[in-house]
Design brief:
Elements (H helix, E strand, L loop, with lengths): L3 E2 L4 H6 L8 E2 L5 E4 L3 E2 L8 E4 L3 H12 L4 E3 L4 H12 L6 H16 L5 H17 L3 H12 L5 E5 H4 L4 E7 L8 H11 L2 E8 L4 E2 L1
Parallel strand pairs: 1-2, 3-9, 4-10, 5-7, 5-8, 6-7, 8-9
Length: about 210
Amino acid sequence: SLSTSFRCPQAIVEAARWRAPEFKWVKPGGHYEVLRTLNLAAIPEGGAIICRNNAPLFKLAFALLANKRSVQVAGSEIGPKLVRLLQKIGADGDDSETLIAKIDVWYNEKLEKTNSPKSLKDQADCLKIFASFGKTLAQAVAYCEHLFAQQGSIKLSTGHKAKGLEWDTVYFLDRWLCGDDEQDQNLAYVIQTRARQTCYEIDSQAIRW
């Protein structure tokens, strides 16, 4: 186990000691805070928003775009996969309500066979986000393609894709999505320790959309 962090300053190391009790720091200072609310305009350029699941990130990315902020969603392979799923599940002419209903049917069918219910739920939630933005299947696909084409300065990433990376400011989105099992607890620790200077925890429900 890593005993000393050369990335994270004191405040972040202390916040991560729930997982690594002997964790030490080299850099003094830093800031770690659980936010009660967040204005999207306050997120700094070059910062990162990290979450266990993709769906909260996609919803937030659209909100940032609507507020004229520049974003980039990690994982170039996710977009085409979601587009293919939307086109497989839906049909030309489907409106938003019909498409969402079909996604529910698809989810329930897959749930009986999957070994990864959490991943399947996140995938279904992602599909519903795009379906809710578009009035038709074609618009839902267009929103998906538009989001993944962005190359902005605010990075949105899952914890798995953030491993080994670092930013000055990190927002840990919806920490409650990390469960109590060993893998999820390790992932929460990874997300906490991506910040070089400042780390915030924020719940989606507390964001000023």
